[in-house]
Amino acid sequence: MRNQPGVLIVEDEPAIAELIAVNLRHNGFRPLWAMDSATAQRELDNVLPDVILLDWMLPGESGLSLAKRWRADARTKGVPIIMLTARGDEMDRVAGLDAGADDYIAKPFSTKELLARIRAVLRRRTPERAAGVVSVGALSLDPATYRVSFSEQLLKLGPTEFKLLHYLMNHPERVHSRSQLLDKVWGDHVFIEERTVDVHVKRLREALGAAGPMIETVRGAGYRLTAQPVPTVASSVQSHA
Ligand code: CA
């Protein structure tokens, strides 16, 4: 049974949780249901699932707040989170992704779509985990430990920034368009706007600090990671501030 991916369903509505659990079980997953944040936390403390399905609207601590907390925790930060939300507008979707969710799905959803999303986050995670340490210049990333360092200094990155950097480091010195990055880093769905890439590139540069200029904007084309960035006035001012 161990090779069946475990899915923690955090959902306060029993009918929805039951529907999801039945479908997951029929499709070779091991569903576990937590109806509130405290139960979910206990389950996570006990054993890490392969994926978390997290309802946005929960009694007590919200799904959004839980996502942030689990992303900040070294033990749980690598577990993909798919947010379930009845809210459809863009601000909320961005808020969910900003909180560290890997994907989101709006209620009501088809179980077929949900299964496809779960398989997509699992596929995206697997090659990352299997790969070894990558280095570009003084920048180094270890997918096994989720550690990123620049000149031996450890850097703190969010999960999306980590995936983005990992992809760029595996394909350095090449220009990637926003749509290519969406496809390769976010996965095979079309529900994310291209400007989301810009938001995460900006955040990645900030997180990289002195290594930030290694991520270059190629006007009209996209982004590139380079070992030898062209120094800019702005970055030299920042580094002396
Ligand atoms: Ca709910």
CATH class designation of the largest domain? Alpha Beta
Strand order across the biggest sheet? 2-1-3-4-5
CATH topology of the largest domain: Rossmann fold
Report the oligomer. Answer: single chain
Task: Write the CATH homologous superfamily of the largest domain.
Answer: Response regulator
End-to-end distance, in Å? Answer: 55 Å
How many separate structural domains?
Answer: 2
**Strand count:** 11
Describe the main β-sheet briefly.
Answer: 5 strands, parallel
Report on this structure.
This protein has 241 residues and is α/β, with parallel strands linked by helices. It folds into two domains: 6-123, Rossmann fold; 134-225, Arc Repressor Mutant, subunit A (Orthogonal Bundle). 44% of the residues lie in helices and 19% in strands. It is built from nine helices and eleven strands. The strands form three sheets. It has a five-stranded parallel beta sheet with strand order 2-1-3-4-5, with helices on both faces. Strand 1 (6-10), helix 1 (14-26) and strand 2 form a beta-alpha-beta unit. Helix 6 crosses helix 8 (195-208). The model is unreliable at 235-241 (pLDDT under 50). Bound molecules: calcium ion. Calcium ion is lined by residues 12-13, 55, 57-58.
